Each structure stands twice: as C-alpha cells, then as structure tokens.
Amino acid sequence: MSLDGGAIHGPKEVSWCGDGAAGASLLPGNAAAADDRLPALVRRYLDQALAAGSPSVICGVIQGRRTYVEGAGAAVGRSAPDGRTVFQLGSITKTLTATALARAVGAGETRLDAPLALPARFRIPRKGNRRITLAHLATHTSGLPSLPPNLLAEADPYDPYAHYTLDDLATGLRGTELSTEPGKVNAYSNLGFGLLGQALAFDDVDSMLRHRVAAPLGMVDTTTALRPDMASRKAVGHMEGEVVPDWHDHVLSAAGTSMYSTANDMVRFLRSQLRPERSPLRDAIELTQRPRFTVDQNLRLGLGWHLSALPGRRTMTWHNGGTGGFSTCAAFIRESGTAVVMMVNTFSQETETAARPVDALTFRLLGELGTA
C-alpha cells in the first residue's frame, strides 16, 4: 500500500483531445451539463464510482453560480452519503497547508525563499550548496524522500503514521539524505509537506490549519480532531472490501495523513479557489495557484496545487488524496467557473497505465461541466 496519499503526476486515462467519450464531451456546443440535466449527469458519474468498487461516493459540483452535491451508496437499505458525511481527505490537505504558508508570507511572517528551520535537534539534510526552502517543500522539489527512513519499521499497516513521534522525526532526519539538490527535480514527498507544517507551527499544526485556513473559509468539519457529532456521520473506510480503521497522525499531518472533511466543506474551499476576490484569503489563494515549477509541457506546480494544461489555453488545477480506507480528488477550471470534488470510502491506487477511478471520474466530469 502506498503511503503517499494517492498523488499522481498528470491525469492518466483521461482524454482532453477530442476522441473517445471524454473527448467528445469537450466539443463546443455540448449541452450535457445544462442546468436541468446536471443531477442526471452527476448521478451517471456516481454510478460509475459504485461500479468501480466504492461502497459509497459523494460528489460536489460548482458550475458558475450553481452548486450541486449528491451521494450514492452500493448497499441496499443504507442511506447514501450527503454533503455533511465525513470522509478522510488525504493529500488534498496539502493545498490547505500551502494556503497557510501563503498567508504567513502575506503577513510578513516568513518568505517563500526562507530556509527550512526547526528546533536544533532536528537536523535538516543538505546536498550541494543550496538549502531547502519553504517553496521547495511546497512544490515537492526539496530532494527529500517520500517518507522518513524510520517510519515503517514499527508501523501498523492499517494505521501507519499513528506511532510516529517528534522524537522519531528527529532520529529519522539524522538518517535522511537528499536524492537531488533542492530546487532541481520534482519528487513527491509527504515528509516534505509534514516538515512544512512543523516549520509553520511547530507541534501545533492541526490548530494552525483550522485557524488560518479552515475557519476563515467556513470549513467547519475540516479537522484532524474527530468531534462526536462528526463521528456519528462519518463514512466507514474500506480496503479490498474489508472495513479498515482511519489513519491518525500528529507529526506529519500537514501532508494530509489524518485530516477529515466533507463535500460541503470542500465545495466552499473550491468556490474560494474559483473566485478568490470574494474570499477573505484572496491574496493567499492567488499565490498558491501561481506556477512556480515546470515538470513538463503539460504540468506545472503551484504551492500545493498541480496545474495541468488543457486545450484552449485553459488550466485544470487539482490535487488528489487517499488514506488506507478513503480516496478523494478535487479539481477546478477558473476559466469556465467549474469545479468538482469526489470522495469515496475505499482505498485505491493508480497503475502504470490508469489513474485511480476517483481521479479519472473527477477529471471527466469536470471536462463535461466546463463546456456547457
């Protein structure tokens, strides 16, 4: 099982070029996503998610001024999830952490080019003459490995981060080597984003994310602390058809290892991404979406966000995520005023040739919405 939260480096298996089912939906004049057909369109994608093996699925859509949220479940006699059903969010959390970084930069508390700094017992690895900066961490260009070298030795495979302490992190960093000089190569790193969170709010990351990002945007159920009222409406995670526990983490939680959220909260977050000028976090949101590193001709990186080039000089901004029992994906196109979030309560993993179902369905649905 991957512990990276489901990250991928481009929308695999999704056609944006005009051939195949997804491509046909992008032809000018397509009316598939007209307002009176939006519920039927969303239900079609919900059915596909269930057919791919998800016990339940929730989808939130923004199309211009309209917001639509609907869920579906495979089990007969059980209620379908709704906009308040709680899922683990996974690595989409990285975009919240990046927003917190952008807020700190805007407030003059730090700089994007500031070197990573932690208490003295945490040795920051180096390679060459360049030090790891906060921007390197937020764009996965630090050279850090995906995970600390000592994370898995005593890990519970069903809750792999729960045992890890700050003392363990200090030990792990002493044995960590960079694969490349910082700023040179993109390599996805949960460790890097975990360290970014600790650099912004040492040993208080979860509170920092709530106060600096979730609360100002009205995301009342986006937290690592599962309140009793949230527990009563939480979806149960699955892996290969079996019930599995949630993930828990205090040290690297800024990477998205233990965050909870709902479709309603994620729709609020995505609406703020589409219209930053209407958000209390306008400047920070704009900064996170600004390209900072080019991976290839089709993919650039903002702070936390992946920026994929689309036909017509448009950009799909996105991130996906996952924990042991949940898979998620969120994407939006500012030029068309459209956004989609999809959350399922089962673990899934991409292959060499295909994206995870939740990712492929999110991108395809967004493609249909963006042409109406």
TrEMBL record:
Residues 43-356 form the Beta-lactamase-related domain. Keywords: Hydrolase. It is an enzyme of class 3 (hydrolase). Its EC number is 3.1.1.103. InterPro entries: AmpC-like, Beta-lactam-related, Beta-lactam/transpept-like. One of its GO terms (molecular function) is hydrolase activity. The keyword tRNA processing does not apply. This is Serine hydrolase domain-containing protein. Pfam families: Beta-lactamase. The keyword Chloroplast does not apply.
